[in-house]
Design a protein that fits this description.
The protein is mainly β. It has three domains: about 30-125, Nuclear Transport Factor 2, Chain: A; about 145-240, Nuclear Transport Factor 2, Chain: A (Roll), CATH 3.10.450.40; about 290-505 and about 540-635, Copper amine oxidase, catalytic domain (Beta-galactosidase, Chain A, domain 5), CATH 2.70.98. Helix content is about 10%, strand content about 35%. The strands form six sheets. Strands 1, 2, 3, 4, 5, 6, 18, 19, 22, 23, 24, 31, 34 and 37 form a 14-stranded mixed beta sheet that branches. Strands 12, 13, 14, 15, 16, 17, 28, 32 and 33 form a nine-stranded antiparallel beta sheet that branches. A five-stranded antiparallel beta sheet has the order 7-8-9-10-11. Strand 22 (about 415-425) and strand 23 form a beta hairpin. The model is unreliable at about 1-25 and about 525-545 (pLDDT under 50). Belongs to the copper/topaquinone oxidase family. One of its GO terms (cellular component) is plasma membrane. This is Amine oxidase. Its cofactor is Cu cation.
Amino acid sequence: MWLLGLPWALALLVTVASSGPSTDPPDPASIFADLSPEELRAVRTFLMGRPELGLSPSQGGPLAKNSLFLVELLPPKKRSALRFLEHGGARPRREARAIVFFGAQAEPNVTELAVGPLPHPSSYRVLGFKGGRAVSFSARPMTRLEYELLFEALVAAMAPLEPLLREATGFGFQNCSERCLTFSDIAPRGVGPGERRTWLVIQRFVLLDHQDPDPRRWAVRQLWYNGRYFGSVRELAESHARGSLPLARLPEPPARHLFSSYEPRGSFSSGTPTEVHGAKVCEPQGRRYRLRGNRLEYGGWSLLFDVRFGGERVAYELSVQEAIAFYGGHSPAAMQTKYMDAGWAMGASSYELARGVDCPETATFLDAYHLLDADGPVRFRHALCVFELPMGVPLRRHFDNDFQGGFHFYAGLEGRALVLRTTSTVYNYDYIWDFLLYPNGVLEAKVHATGYIHATFYTPEGRRYGSRLHSHLLGNIHTHLVHYKVDLDVAGSGNSFETMDIRFENISNPWSPGARLCVAQLGDRAGVAQGPPPAPGLTSPLARPRYHLAVTRRHENEPSSSSIYSQNDPWDPPVTFENFIRDNETIEDQDLVAWVTVGFLHVPHAEDIPNTATPGNAVGFFLRPFNFFNEDPSVASRAPVIVRPLDPPTCSRVEIQRWTPPSPGACVHPEPFTYNGTYRQV
């Protein structure tokens, strides 16, 4: 989908690879390439120079201003793209999508613009949502400036509570040097349309109203401390001063081995050495995939923006739409939390991947560039990686037993896949996004959840909603749900959707009169079978989680199932997925989109300390060919091994057939570990 750097799905992972000038004609796939830093700057310069827009720099100044929030690629319309790619039609006009916050007017609003043509923009037009829905100013995502002003307002409002904070935590806001408190925030920001009131998590919770563009009108509306609500800062401060407030004093944190740190502690009972390197991935004869500009090729796979196998398009688009987490709890911050991470810059939170940890040392690393809430493009170094992965399990194998202590033959094909990976670090949580391409024409989309749990302050009442993980820490129960868009084009755009059921039939046994058999029946089908694992059927302000799988006709005005505005206005969002499936359109021989929801319930436990681990916290789905090929296409691989005995049944001598070198050779990556971790404006 086209929000905050999405879809980094298959598109971004292969489009950021090109760099530097070239005299070669542009690859047709470059129509899908992410905007270059030069194009991002050109769009910003053009819009900043339009007097009618009255734009100010994003950083500094008041909130009540007109500012450019986001610039990213506006993909061409599918029909134009396919006409160009497949029929030699005109190259589609290259455009950018720009989001402008118009805060310096009587009725502030958010407006999206199409800007082009690139690389030298000269015009813009307003982009609309389906049904002409407008975006209210209160639905806009948070910016760095608003967070800075929010912190200033919080520090000022908390001044009367400084004695309480110092006594209870040993930390504060005033003249705190290295013992300063900070805060995190939750969303939605209110309980109805138009509100912008946020519960801020310090040691306790503060409800701060920041709806007005003028921070001088912001105010603390409520506070929650140790299970009690207070109507004002003064009320809480006076309760503390009278000595009538039960204090929950936090112990002094240790200088080392803090429970939430990654520092090693303890030892394994088996004595396994962990101070040496373990198993590694290697490429003994070099890389077997090719990454050329916007084109990635591996086995039968070829990726531009669309996904092909053996030259046939399988999908035009495969992208992440949204990741949401719904929490439960006793405290206001926990019970209010309904995270919709597209509104938290999920697609642009692709920070540096560590070689040898996040991706194998052999991986190809790619940079990404975003212009989001900044006054210029920002480079995210090593934001994506591509690598071939040995799966540790054969793709297929068989031992043909002779039942005399030997065998007729053994045959096996090692299991490998090409992995395209990026991450999204949305404050506390880290999502690891994988797309795996297998040589038998199977594609897997998978996400791992890791990072720090979103925890709240422990109270006895909170035990109903989670686990006590530390003396004053409650891990709140929550559900993770991820939504994908799969624009399937199986042997063309005219597809149909079928479900397949197995039924049992009780029939007479044809060779034993009087006996009966129960047999399974299945009709012949062709196409792609899509099998997501079970996902929770959770009802929410957004309709997507209600469906494991929904199939609709593709429309250009339905490019995504969510938007960056849903988080702060889930009650009246500009994009409502339910409307996609209520129009009762035929889905026979049409251009179809499959919308897939996967997810899992997370009940935090002690082993989530310090971080949630990836095993057991991964979900995804597969695209599998089903009667699409005449046989398994991986037979084209030269990697199988076939073993036959030369003297059966003794089997003392064997013939080994293989089409690769007998030994893979040395398997060591010589470069030491390095990591940069910065992302800077360029």
